[in-house]
Amino acid sequence: MAATATERKLLIDGEWVETGDWLEVRSPYSGEVVARVAKGGAAEARRAVDAAARALESPLPAHKRAEILVKVAGLIGRRHEELAQTISAEAGKPIKAARVEASRAMSTFTFAAAEARKLTGEMIAMDGAQAGEGKLGFTLRKPIGVIGAISPFNFPANLVAHKIAPALAAGCPVVLKPASQTPLSALFLAELELEAGLPAGWINVLVGPAAQIGDVLVEDPRVKLITFTGSSEIGWGLQERAPRKRVKLELGNSTPVIVAADADVEGAATKLAGNAFAFAGQSCISVQRIYVERAVHDAFVQAFVPKVEALVVGDPADDGTDVGPVIDAGARSRITEWIDEAKAAGATVLAGGLEGELIRPTVLGGVSDDQKVSCEEVFGPVVIVNPVDSVAEGIERANGTKFGLQAGIFTASLDTALGAADDLEFGGVTVNEAPTFRSDQMPYGGVKESGNTKEGPAWAVREMTEERLVVIQR
Ligand code: NAP
Questions:
Q1: Quick one: pLDDT at residue 2?
Q2: Most Cβ neighbours (<10 Å): which of 24, 204, 228, 382?
Q3: What gap in Å lies between CA 192 and CA 71, rounded to an integer?
Q4: Helix, strand, or coil here: 68?
Q5: Is 433 among the residues known to form the active site?
Q6: For residues 448 and 412, what is the distance between their CA atoms, to the nearest angstrom?
Q7: How confident is the prediction for the chain on average, in pLDDT?
Q8: What is the C-alpha to C-alpha distance for residues 266 and 272, in angstroms, rounded to an integer?
Q9: The 287-293 sheet, strands edge to edge
């Protein structure tokens, strides 16, 4: 039986499970309780891994996996508004952005279905070596095994989709732990997966103490791969504790963008104003640092600031809202402290301030590189704009970070664009597009502290399978 709208249960081995212990999911905007969710710990996590390991003993053929994934995409389509409302209610995401996320989750399942149907190994040119003459060699792609998936609060549906959909495409059962603040979209998707015909044990969803559930995923040898999206500290900690597993990390960033003197300044200002503040800056590739060549710095600021000030701040449930709350009071105080620190160190506030409990989109000028709002991940509605003497200086300052997820450049010169693509030390570089851009089939992932993998179904499926070599003597 599916759980009710306001009381949700854990999913273990195809059953909705109550534990007697409940976690409250509250609206980040109003503080009201959105739902109560059954809370499980290590014992439930072990049962979930048992169920997933049993599921693996009855493999699903690729066409069946693809069919289920396509059905899930269709079911999301049918219940699109309900999923968008769930995302918005639990994460405080403006409803128009939540609708985009629901559509993207559909697209992630659709791309994963295509990968399931074409998952193959490779032919090996055996007679390339004398010893291989007369032999036929090829590889099979085998599911790696049970996958432990841990997801963050900021894209509670689509980042769950980026874990579950490729895992199922690869033939791997999943034990998922969504963020405690936003478990409802994950449970909603799990319900659709069961409805699409996914047999018991293939998807298990646990909500509860992260360390306890994480420990089971780290320690149980049947969990062969942990796919984690979240903060750098927790991600790299998991990797250290599980040196014999594949631990695939999608972590944070301090996203830079360079506006060259030859750029379409008005166009860059429009794209960046929209993208620096989407979901109140709580995206791992939210624009955070803008370096503008001095010749167009003032023109950029004059174009950018009014566009930022025109963003509508308010209730995420309203169709007109562009910027809602940050996830909780702790995040709000941390972000406002970092802004105050930058101001005390000489930064100029070009836009921003508080509106009740909400942080207005904040633009800071004259911020030194050692300020937290520059060198750490703000994960809030704050952007800094600094002049640079050249594109080369912009690239150097963009690279001057421990992170390396995505970066961008606005320029009219192909040479400048290609030079930046070569020199920016990031997993992805956008040209004449905000580095907040992501489409779900792209290989997406960072270098340096930002991670060690690429998501996007085609890439994730490879991570979640192992190649087995077959050599045949003819
Ligand atoms: P977080 O605090 O690191 O939490 C992420 C997940 O890890 C949650 O499910 C959390 O559970 C769990 N967790 C916490 N402690 C754990 C432990 N000891 N063992 C195992 N799991 C543990 O991150 P967040 O605040 O939700 O998300 C924001 C971060 O995610 C930002 O740094 C952002 O850049 C990053 N992010 C990266 C990408 C990307 O693709 N690169 C995409 C989106 C977000 P609880 O909720 O129960 O604590």
A1: 39
A2: 204
A3: 9
A4: helix
A5: no
A6: 29
A7: 97
A8: 10
A9: 348-351, 362-365, 382-388, 287-293, 255-259, 406-410, 428-431
pLDDT tens by residue, 307-349: 999 999 999 999 999 999 999 999 999 999 999 999 999 999 9
Tell me how far apart the alpha carbons of residues 394 and 249 are, in angstroms, rounded to a whole number: 27
* Per-residue exposure over 66-95, b if at least 16 CB sit within 10 Å of its own CB, e if not: bbbbbbbbebbeebeeebbbbbbbbbbbbb
Active site residue 172: no
Q: Which of 115, 250, 377, 449 is catalytic?
A: 250
Could you please report the per-residue DSSP string of 158-186? HHHHHHHHHHHHHT--EEEE--TT--HHH
pLDDT, tens only, 11-60: 999 999 999 999 999 999 999 999 999 999 999 999 999 999 999 999 99
**DSSP symbols for 297-345:** HHHHHHHHHHHHHTSPBS-TTSTT-SB---S-HHHHHHHHHHHHHHHHT
For the CA of 155, the nearest atom of ligand 1:
43
Within 8 A by CB and 6+ apart from 118, the residues are none
Which of 10, 24, 104, 153 has the most ligand 1 atoms within 8 A of CB, as the residue to mutate?
Answer: 153
Pocket residues for ligand 1 (CB within 6 Å)? 150-155, 159, 177-181, 210-211, 214, 229-231, 234, 250-252, 284, 377, 379, 405, 446, 451
Residue-wise pLDDT tens digits, 436-463: 999 999 999 999 999 999 999 999 999 9
Q: Map residue 147 onto helix, strand or coil.
A: strand
* Euclidean distance between CA atoms 168 and 112, whole angstroms: 8
Q: How far does the centroid of ligand 1 lie from the alpha carbon of residue 59, in Å?
A: 30
Residue identifier of the C-alpha nearest atom 17 of ligand 1 = 211
